[in-house]
Amino acid sequence: MSNMDKRRAAETILKLVGGADNVEEVTHCFTRLRFVLKDESIPRDEEVSRAEGVISVVRAGGQYQVVCGTKVQGIYQELEEMLREKRSRGAAPTPPRRPIGDRILQKVAEIFTPLIPAIAASGLIKGLLTAARLLLERYGIDLAATDTYVILNAASQVIFYFMPIFLAMTCAKAFRCNRVMAMVVGASLVYPQMDALIQNTEQATTVFGLPVLKNAWQIGSSVKVFSYTESVIPIILAILCMAALERWLTRLIPEIVRLIAVPGLELLVILPLTLVVLGPVGIYVGNGIQYLYDTMMGFSTVLGGALVGGLWGVCVIFGAHRALLPIGLNDVAVNGRQNLLAFAGAANFAQGGAALGVCLKTGNRELRQIAASAALTASVVGVTEPAIYGCNLRLKKPMVCAVICGAVGGAIMGIGNVYGDAFANNGVLTVFTYAAYGMTRFAFYLAGIGTAFFGAAALTYLVGFEELPAPGREQNEE
């Protein structure tokens, strides 16, 4: 798709959703433009879905989501430029308040979606390093002792170790406050001297005479020490409070000293508040969430794997899978491993397999091309929206086949108690992320994704579906 085509697609989409005046905010993920519209009754879904560059339309989580596939970033860049140009000519009216549930889901998506590419890249590097280490061990070579391994392994860990800094940036954007000051708060929590102070549970620490809370707790046979490195919830609470404080200070302090006074007072208030109250609350909330998740998985990893593997693709349809990401990130922070995305991997490969079944079964050449591309995208890099919206959901029966086989694949992983040592989007490129905890678990992971992929392809081919014209043909007939 050329730059001119992307520009034309962006112009068409913007016009169909009601123009710049109707757009409160727009973001994007791997495959979707995510609009927050002031009036969602303006766009007509059928017209938008037939626009150039558009695969489908989804209304979920208080957002109007336009699925564009792999072209989304180029279209988004053109769209952002047009919105800046049009909004510079005058201020838009204040939008109406949305339901609290929609606003929460929207903010969760805004906070975590920008981090996904970096997390995916880290998982890819981690998986490749694991594969290389296991392969070279057979020849008596200790790859982990080499400088290259140390450097690349450090690069794969940075996004997790300094998670409070990255989350501070995205939270500041979501909550509309000073991003640099938010990052200062996040960096303060992982500053080496601060981290050593927090982890020294034998010595009391105070700030302005208030006690800095520290703790250590038992996890299995090991002891986990209170630390803000890799943490998720504490910094979200901190920046949420910082945004409210910043707005209040901005109204209160005269403009002549606002540039220095507001950031200074923010830091003096928010950092002690975080260390004394918000941070500990966030840590314990995270531990509570982790306890509930571990309890569910402890009851039956087979059932947990089946539920996640079967329903993850359904969550993707509504964009609700973004709300589950903090669970996996928190799992890595608390336990150093995660299985949420392992089970979600069964869903990803099942969607790819169902798309492959469509490719093999359909007599429509255009639909075959769409399905083949979608199957490749889902199975290699774990991006499933082209498969879901391009063919599976549209044809209905392939989506049902994907849900069934994803659940079976997830259950197989649950039987093997599969874990990964990184938070990685599931695809062929990241499979070795799940080899870090032994070849037995890795074999169950491979069996799970293999069952999901080939099972969904075979089931879709056998069950069949009612042939429909491909999206491109529908558009040409208009």
Automatic annotation (TrEMBL):
Lineage top rank: taxon: Bacteria
UniProt main location, coarse: membrane
Protein location: Cell membrane
Keyword Transferase appears in the UniProt entry: yes
Residue stretches making up the PTS EIIC type-1 domain: 110-475
Keyword Disulfide bond annotated: no
This protein's UniProt keywords: Cell membrane, Kinase, Membrane, Phosphotransferase system, Sugar transport, Transferase, Transmembrane, Transmembrane helix, Transport
A molecular-function term among this protein's GO annotations: protein-N(PI)-phosphohistidine-sugar phosphotransferase activity
InterPro entries: Glu_permease_IIB (IPR036878), PTrfase_EIIB_Cys (IPR018113), PTS_EIIC (IPR003352), PTS_EIIC_1 (IPR013013), PTS_IIB_1 (IPR001996), PTS_Sugar-Specific_Components (IPR050558)
Residues at the active site: C29
Domain PTS EIIB type-1: from-to ranges: 7-89
GO cellular component: plasma membrane
Protein's name in the database: Phosphotransferase system, EIIC
Species in which this protein is naturally found: [Clostridium] asparagiforme DSM 15981
